Amino acid sequence: MSSFRIGGIASGMDTESIVRDLMRVQRLPLQRLEQDKQIWQWRQESYRNLNMSLLALRNKAFDMRLQAPYLVKKATSTNETVLSVTAGASAHNATYNINVTSLASAASTYSTAPVGENIQVKDALHTWVGGVSPTDTFSFYLRDTENATGAISNFNVDTASIKGVAANASASIGTKDGKLNIRAKDTGALLNGYTINFVNNEEQDEIKVQVDTVGDSKVITVTANLAQEDLKLADIAQAINEEMGENEQISLSATGKYELKDLDGLELSLSGGVDEVQGQYSFSIAEDKAFAAGEYITINGQSFKGVTGTADATKGEFSVDGDATAQMESLVQAINANKVLNSRFEPATLEGDKITLIEKEGQATGRDITSPVNGIGFDFTYGDSLEKVISTVNNNKLAGVTMFFDEGTKSLVVTSKETGAAKGINIFDNVGSFMTGIMNINTTDKDGDHYTKGTDAEFTLNGLKTTRSTNNFQINNVTFNLKSKGEATVEIQGDTDKVVENIKEFVELYNKTLDEVYGKLNEERFRNFAPLTKEQRDEMSEKDIELWEEKAKSGLLQRDGVLSNAMNALRRIMTSTVDDLEISNIFDLGMKTGSYRENGKIYIDEEKLREAIENNPEGVMKLFNNDSEGNLGIARQLQNELDKTMKSISERAGSSTNLYDQSTIGKTLKNIDDQIFRMEERLARMEDRYWKQFTAMEQALQAMYQQGDWLAQQMMIMGG
Questions:
Q1: Are residues 423 and 539 in the same domain?
Q2: Contact, 623 vs 634, CB < 8 A?
Q3: What distance lies between CA 20 and its chain's CA centroid?
């Protein structure tokens, strides 16, 4: 396009208006293309809107294929203050007489004495706890089960407590021939039968574990002088089996003996690096192999394949064999990544094929080993606030408890999140004594006034006395929600009203969809109302534009073949007979179709529908969702037909979610866009040519005027 234009300077003509009028005529084909594009866009929009309506009907038809809309149950309680009840679709019609004698409750505990007068929960702990600095650390762990003593305890183990091992020898643990193998290192000898003593530091009770070789297996005998030792034996078995994996590798006999057989697949590992929960140094047996070729060992959550070797729990040493030494540096990094280790041990060192951990000065000489089954640990500094401690525990989904601090009594209150006698609160200090010594929490004494045990719900159901750990439970797909003590009767029966409502909703949506589609098929086409051009829109009000475009959009899908065929198919399906059924068509349900002018609209006689549902609920369901090959129910047939129709519409109009529209209309619009682009380029060149011609004319006239002025000037000179 020329950038030099002269508009009527010499000629006095309105060149710009002349060019605009000339181009207006030339732009008429372009305007027609733009109007065609707008019509195709409106048509595409109409298709897509109808497809959304068909999708809603398709989804409803899918729902009607299921059992849920028909097998609806109604549950009623004669005493809602005692219990409320809901019934699932598969619940049986029944009557339940229930007498609630006690509700399930959660365990709770609080500080045995006021914590102090100067506590501010938002302030750093060191500001009101004496003798500590902001960088000092403390940690504790908790468990939300009752009777945790013995399963969660601190044990002190040193070399001397391992009988049958020479005093200067240390033990290593591995697997051999698929069995647990405990052997001496260096020249130390293990006897055929030996004892390992664990001394419980909290209660000063002694647990002895005797391991003897019997044939091809090892038998572990546990003796203890603790109260309720049967629970402790079970806890020990549970703890060992959880460490060993899914296979039941240890069983407790009636004589109090644990039998270890075929312990194939044991993994010797640092549990959580060094026990992450308690921050203490421990080795554990997990479910995957480690000390076998091609398997792996896990340290601090990081797995290393092809590692074989031994672990020395008494010296804090971990050794590997063969080619595995290439991974030792990574193993050291994994161990040192444990933040709890850093506060207790010097950084791990690597010497040859051996990794060594040395306790920092001032730590106990014995190894503290913990066995917190399902315990959760928390680490803080005295620079943290009590508010942070409480929120951290409360936000931990695995902790199983909630905490709050009562400003009035200056007490910390801890409550189990779950109810039941099996749920309790057990809090143990690990580093420091924050919980027991500062917050005055004592969970070892379950009989004190400060501790309330959790209780089970107790009730009699149809004469059977039973219990549940929660007040909300299911029996035969009936959900009971106990609220208070007392008696109530529960009735479970079919909910005819809800089934009627579900079928009515389906039919109403069907009628609505047919009305919408037939409305588009029969809509009048106003061909004199073409899409407005930009110039026309600029001259009209918003209301006039709206009314005009309403006419222009009308009838774009008039007598559309895809939609007409789909509606005929839907009407045929809804009134068809499903063979071999007791209720074989909708007319058996009291339904009928309207007049021809109503395009197949369906009317429901609700009384007859209700009667059919009450007399034969299975037959009503089969009419809609029968899945016999070649004999599908109405809802299944409708869904299949709607899927096919929606696919055809998508092929024609595409979807707004598609990045690249390959539909028929999409390709048409792209072709129109290409034509518009080429025509706009041609019109631009034409307009430029007009301007060049008028500019040349203006320049010629200007030159002629200048020449005439010169001649006139010369004649004046000559005449003068």
A1: no
A2: yes
A3: 63
Residues 168 and 246 in one domain: yes
Name which of 440, 375, 394 is nearest 129 in CA terms: 440
Residues 246-293 have pLDDT tens digits of 443 454 444 444 444 433 322 223 222 222 222 223 333 232 223 333
User: For residue 213, what pLDDT is reported?
Assistant: 44
Q: 236 with 256: CB under 8 angstroms?
A: no
Q: What are phi and psi of 525, to 5 degrees?
A: -100, 125
Instruction: Please classify residue 657 by burial: count the beta carbons closer than 10 Å to its beta carbon, then call 0-12 exposed, 13-18 middle and 19+ buried.
Output: exposed
Residue where the block lists tokens 């006698």: 421
pLDDT of amino acid 643: 96
Q: Let me know: does 240 contact 250? Beta carbons within 8 Å.
A: yes
Query: At which of 616, 632, 660 does a domain end?
Result: 660
Residue-number span of the structural domain to which 626 is assigned: 34-69+497-660
- 287 and 362 in one domain? yes
Largest CA distance in the chain: 151
Phi-psi region of 188 (alpha: psi -120 to 50; beta: other; left: phi over 0): beta
Structural domain contains residue 503: yes
**Of 610, 525, 626, 536, which is closest to residue 576 (Cα–Cα)?**
626
- Nearest to 140, CA basis, from 396, 361, 337: 396
* Residue 95 and residue 212 in one domain: no
Does residue 304 or residue 696 have the better pLDDT?
696
Quick one: which of 429, 400, 397 has its CA closest to 414? 400
482/492 Cα distance (integer angstroms): 17
- Regarding whether 574 and 530 lie in a shared domain, the answer is yes
- For residue 604, which of 514, 530, 680, 504 has the smallest C-alpha distance? 504
How far is residue 475's CA from residue 481's CA, in Å, rounded to a whole number? Answer: 11
- Say how far apart CA 611 and CA 472 lie, in whole Å: 35
Both tokens of 604, joined, read: 């429901």
Query: Are 238 and 309 in the same domain?
Result: yes
Let me know whether 85 and 48 are in one domain. no
Which residue among 452, 478, 507 closes a domain?
Answer: 452
* Residue in the structure block whose two tokens are 């005027």: 705
Q: How many domains does the chain have?
A: 4
Lowest mean pLDDT among 147-156, 238-247, 353-362: 147-156
- Nearest Cα residue to 653 out of 2, 28, 1, 43: 43
Residues 6+ apart with CB under 8 A from 690: 19, 22, 23
Q: Quote the tokens at residue 285.
A: 């047996």
Q: Is the pLDDT of residue 706 over 90?
A: no
> Which tokens go with 59?
């989804």
d(CA 222, CA 197): 10
Q: Going along 365-410, which residue ranges are E strands?
A: 367-370, 376-381, 401-406
Confidence of residue 634 (pLDDT cuts 50, 70, 90): very high
Do the bridges between strand 627-628 and strand 73-77 make them parallel or antiparallel, or are there none, so unpaired? unpaired
Angle between helices 617-625 and 606-615 (to 10 degrees): 110
Same domain for 283 and 202: yes
The closest alpha carbon to 676, from 7, 13, 11, 31, belongs to: 31
Provide the whole-model pTM: 0.56
> What whole-number distance in Å separates Cα of residue 220 and Cα of residue 655?
69
Q: Counting Cβ atoms within 10 Å, is residue 483 exposed (0-12), middle (13-18) or buried (19+)?
A: middle
Residue 463 burial (C-beta neighbours within 10 Å; 0-12, 13-18, 19+): exposed
Element (H, E) at 592: strand 591-593
DSSP assignment, residue 162? B
